[in-house]
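Q: How do we represent a protein-ligand complex in a form that can be generated token by token?
A: Start from the inputs.
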Amino acid sequence: MDAHLIMVAIVGAWLVIAAAVFVGLFFVTAPYGRHVRGGWGPTLPNRYGWLVMEAPAALVFLAGFAVGPHNGSVTAWVFLAMWETHYVYRAFVYPFTLQDDGRRMPLSVVGMALAFNTVNAGLNSWWLFDLSGGYLNAWLADPRFLAGIALFVAGMAANRRSDATLRELRASSVSDTSGPHGPVSLPAEAASRYRIPEGGFYRWVSCPNYLGEMVEWIGWAIATWSLPGLAFAVWTVANLVPRARAHHEWYRRHFTDYPAERKTLIPGIW
Ligand code: NDP
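Then emit the structure tokens for the protein with NDP bound:
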């Protein structure tokens, strides 16, 4: 069968799975972070979970670039740089910014994310450095590339800034368990680990890190103007929209003084 048809068939099936995951995650929140719970099998420390599940995205994409027949243009290198700027950080830096506080995540979650990252990085690199036939350097001046990379960079900046706010909050909540918002009725675990994030994009939404991540990969889809890029953006939305809703409801349940005007993910709308 023609390789392009195989790609279209795989991405079609991949999108159907994304739609099922999107619906499913509204009913079953992925059990890591604040939503971790028993019944999901053996666990491993958070830090190593992040490393193991995200590393394939960096490595598989790099391998696809290395063996691809169309990896010589400046555009190919720019795509490599965009992808790896995200994934080298996410896989090899982000895990070591997390507090080593004994938190764990189920191996089953790590396994699912690892499988996703392997397929996703494989499809994107297969398209960009092989099946596309190569992007000309003139693509770098195309309005789709320019708009896409602008969104990509803006999304990444919002994601990193917002994650940094949470990191600073975690550091302060671990050193001071009294809470900056007065005596609210929090379970001990939540009181000691979580605070209400303030400032930056948190003025408007509960999960600006997720919003940034979504904008980033929508930017990637536009910049690459590709089916695998589109599928990645759809998967990111499918993963993060239900999780943002779960986070937002969790904040409202656990903090009686949670800002009423703050939305879930889209400023002023939802
Ligand atoms: P969260 O926002 O749930 O948590 C990020 C970190 O901040 C965790 O260490 C968390 O601790 C801590 N934290 C969160 N809220 C608070 C708070 N209120 N007070 C103190 N500490 C807090 O993000 P995720 O862990 O789900 O995701 C991490 C990154 O990975 C994000 O940038 C996200 O965009 C990205 N991601 C991308 C996906 C994709 O499909 N492309 C899928 C999932 C994540 P704890 O773990 O203990 O809750």
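DSSP finds eight helices and two strands in the chain. The first helix runs from residue 3 to 27.
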